[in-house]
Specification:
It is built from 17 helices and 21 strands. The chain is of the alpha/beta class and 542 residues long. Strands 1, 2, 3, 4, 5, 18, 19, 20 and 21 form a nine-stranded mixed beta sheet that branches. Strands 9-10-11-12-13-17 form a six-stranded parallel beta sheet. The radius of gyration is 23 Å and the shape is globular. The protein starts with 8 loop residues before the first helix and ends in a 12-residue tail after the last strand. The N terminus is likely disordered. Bound molecules: zinc ion (ZN).
Length: 542
């Protein structure tokens, strides 16, 4: 089964017998009436395969699409007029952190408002479940179903999380026994429906994994054709080595490779993109299945500690802060950190996005150079002060990417759209800090800025990169396309107005031009206004 559909009549019957079958059939309308639950009329239907749009009606009953035709004759209990609008499969965000606030606000509003109906979490080496009996993916999926989030949620298993559980924060090789324990956890996660394995090789403790360890832990992916998805060891000066390592891991394990948020960071590395594509082409010619994703912004978001070398962060924040003030290591850390800031283009290319310490809240949203100046501090000293008072919990945005390269990455046939963003709302407990606007703007930004305005790709191509392409990558066999029998995840938007509104300075703004979002047959957004909540569930790779 591709997912845990509570509405599946077969499953209900198996579970509770004939009464449930009767009830299910009343709802799905199979025997007792011929109308559909919902018909979307006269929209330009893009099926997600890259085919051009055609004017069609789409009928939904229960949680399934039941008919797509130039004219659906049966009436819908509910009807939506989509004349002049695009009707597409709900978007699938293949690299999301939208679960970060999911428990405090299950609406995951900024994700739903973008037309995203499935978010893929467990990215960058970090997942909520770990495949152990105590934290299995089966129980995690059950918890997601019980939470009833706005969007569907799929997850990879995070290899950094496994390392943390089995080895801890230490920078040392895994023993053979530890490798086999971690590989068994990956296997268990995949059996339970995880849709890939992710690494975050710029984060600790995931960064301490060797190439051989990554190969061993990716082997269980091969038979299932699920991807090893990697936030690579480096995305700037050693980008080519990092790509080579990623390809070597996938080749060694025999599994597909998904390079997460592909970028060429720092102006002096912008010219490397053609070489990156050549390496990927060569790997594919040698039968390693490589693809990648990218968010449509020229600034990235990460922890402020990421400006510091990995070795200085070994063992966690307390050890890091000790090394910063230890005469034996302080100078080297200072030098390497300044080199990283120079690579990005200077202190004012670093924007502080979220600060844990209450007394430093005035720093949020400020450029680091300007913040230091306003406090009459040296920027390096200001950085250390912020990290000390927040125990390392400081977020940053780095403005270090080329828009020209971004356009080439997005429009490349192997490129998919991801947000890499969090989920939040403009109201309620998740409106806090200064998050990266990609959490509210990614998908409409691609459709508005890069399809309509800059014409970097066609609407049909962009939709494919948001739907069938990621669905095939993570084996969600009944999502990502509009066809009879598939899950009723649908988005309706106006190609002439769809736009992101969230910015780096004002991220708490929903996009415009997206009028209807349907998740599992439930209308979550209608006329651009919030409708039913609780439409999502855990979805598993098949
Ligand atoms: Zn990442």
């Amino acid at each position: 089964m591709p997912d845990n559909s509570p509405k599946s009549s077969r499953r209900s019957f198996v579970a509770t017998g004939a009464t449930a079958l009767l009830a299910a059939d009343i709802r799905t309308g199979t025997f007792f009436r011929r109308d559909h639950d919902l018909v979307i009329r006269n929209g330009i239907v893009f099926d997600g395969t890259g085919a051009e749009g055609r004017e069609m009606d789409v009928a939904i009953t229960g949680d399934r699409i039941v008919e797509i035709a130039p004219k659906v004759h049966a009436r819908g209990r509910e009807e939506i007029d989509a004349r002049g609008l695009a009707v597409a499969p709900g978007f699938i965000d293949i690299h999301s952190h939208g679960d970060s606030n999911m428990e405090s606000d299950p609406r995951v509003e900024s994700v739903i408002r973008q037309g995203v109906t499935t978010m893929v979490v467990g990215a960058d080496g970090s997942s909520r479940a770990n495949g152990s009996p105590e934290q299995s993916f089966a129980s995690w999926f059950a918890a997601v179903d019980a939470l009833k989030p706005g969007p569907n949620v799929a997850s990879m298993v995070g290899l950094g999380t496994l390392r943390e559980v089995v080895i801890g924060d230490m920078d040392r090789p895994a023993t053979a026994d530890e490798v086999s324990r971690m590989a068994a956890m990956v296997d268990s996660a995949l059996k339970d429906g995880a849709c890939g394995a992710s690494s975050g090789l710029e984060y600790t403790p995931g960064a301490f994994a060797s190439r051989d360890e990554l190969i061993a832990l990716s082997r269980p992916l091969a038979a299932r054709r699920l991807p090893y998805a990697t936030h690579m060891r480096n995305e700037d000066d050693r980008l080519m080595e990092a790509i080579e390592e990623s390809i070597a891991v996938a080749r060694g394990a025999g599994c597909p490779l998904q390079i997460s948020h592909l970028k060429t960071q720092g102006p002096r590395n912008w010219a490397k993109l053609d070489k990156v594509f050549l390496l990927i082409d060569a790997a594919r010619a040698a039968r390693t299945d490589v693809a990648f994703d990218r968010y449509p912004y020229v600034a990235y978001a990460t922890g402020l500690t990421n400006l510091f070398p990995v070795w200085s962060r070994d063992g966690g924040i307390d050890q890091f802060l000790a090394r910063v003030s230890d005469a034996a290591t302080a100078t080297r850390i200072h030098t390497e950190m300044l080199a990283k800031v120079e690579l990005i283009g200077g202190w004012d290319n670093v924007q502080l996005s979220g600060v844990k310490a209450v007394e430093d809240r005035d720093a949020e949203g400020k450029r680091l150079g300007a913040y230091a100046k306003s406090h009459a501090l040296d920027p390096y000293a200001a950085t250390i002060g912020l990290l000390t008072r927040s125990k390392g919990d400081v977020g940053m945005l780095g403005y270090a990417m080329s828009e020209d390269n971004l356009e080439h990455i997005l429009s490349h046939p192997l490129g998919m759209v991801c947000s890499d963003g969090g989920g939040f709302a403009i109201d309620g407990p998740t409106r806090r800090g200064s998050p990266h606007p990609r959490g509210a703007g990614t998908f409409p930004r691609v459709l508005g800025r890069y399809v309509r305005e800059r014409k970097v790709l066609t609407l049909a191509q962009a939709i494919k990169k948001m739907t069938s392409q990621p669905a095939a990558r993570i084996r969600l066999s009944d999502r990502g396309r509009l066809a009879a029998g598939l899950a009723a995840d649908v988005v309706v938007f106006d190609p002439s107005t769809v736009s992101d509104k969230a910015t780096f300075n004002a991220p708490f703004q929903y996009p415009v031009g997206i009028s209807v979002v349907i998740v599992n047959g439930v209308v979550a957004l209608r006329d651009g206004q919030r409708s039913a909540i609780g439409s999502g569930r855990g979805v598993k790779a098949s």
